[in-house]
Amino acid sequence: MEKKIFEYFSFYQNEILPKIMTIPEVTQKDYWYHWLLTHTEWVVFRWIYFAVSMDKNPIPVIFACACHDLARTNDLDCLKHWPNAVPIAENLMDMFDDLLSVEEKEMVKYAVKNHTIWTVAPDYVSACLRDADRVRLSWEKGYKEKFFNTEPWKKIASWNPRDFLEFENRCLWRGKDVDNEWVLCSKI
Is the whole model's pTM more than 0.90, yes or no? Predict the structure, then answer.
């Protein structure tokens, strides 16, 4: 499972993230909590973990997670960041047109636009983006089941985060090379 997670995460880091960095409309920069190279990477990783463990297609949610805060202009309640991120998501998805179906693109746009709404998510892309985005908050401020859509994330969010964070850090920051040595793989 770790190898699959690493491969999908490498796709995000080596293919998607460099394209994001070329889009002039991206305003998410180096904010403390919502930094593109920390918060967004963790959200992307969390979904990849969920997708691989649940046999779901991770590609649409990788795009949704990658785009969800791209229009953020601060760490506070940036009220227009979610609708303003939709055109950026469309631009990014156009760069990878062959990877997503029309239906998947619509799910990504809906998930990005509505990731802060506290309703039941209509599909797995929205549900997992919302849950992956909120796990860290539950660990910091206390778990509240009503803020989660998926049973696996309810379970993870209610746990002490130490074990999951160790696993997450191992996959985010390091991977095994062909000689089975640990090497740095993150762009951070």
Answer: no
